[in-house]
Amino acid sequence: MIDAWLGGISAAMGQNPWLAPLLAFVAGVLTSFTPCSLSTIPLVVGYVGGTSRDTGRSFRLSLTFALGSAVTFTVLGLALIHIV
How is residue 78 annotated by DSSP? Predict the structure, then answer.
């Protein structure tokens, strides 16, 4: 059953090249709700919220954190693809 489901997803991605990045994004968002990721939320909120009451600075810190995480995971994913 899972093989058929994955085969269907693979075929759909072959027909629509924009489906793969969309599915990767959705999978990343779902992954952020795992217990390992949820434990980092108080740390990030404490750092971003505790550094300043300036909402502009807090937004920049949050954006920098999110972009840094995205770049890190993208590079690790690309490195893994080239290794395998």
Answer: H
Q: How far apart are the first and last CA of the chain?
A: 25
Q: Give me 32's structure tokens.
A: 């952020």
What contacts 58, CB < 8 A, 6 or more positions away?
48, 49, 51, 52
Do 41 and 34 touch, CB atoms closer than 8 A?
no
User: pLDDT per residue over 21-40, tens digit each?
Assistant: 888 888 878 887 888 877 87
Could you tell me which of 69, 22, 21, 24 has the C-alpha nearest to residue 43?
69
* Structure tokens, 59: 């937004």
pTM of the predicted structure, to 2 decimals: 0.53
Q: In the structure encoding, which two tokens stand for residue 70, read together?
A: 């995205």
User: What residue type is assigned to position 31 of the chain?
Assistant: T
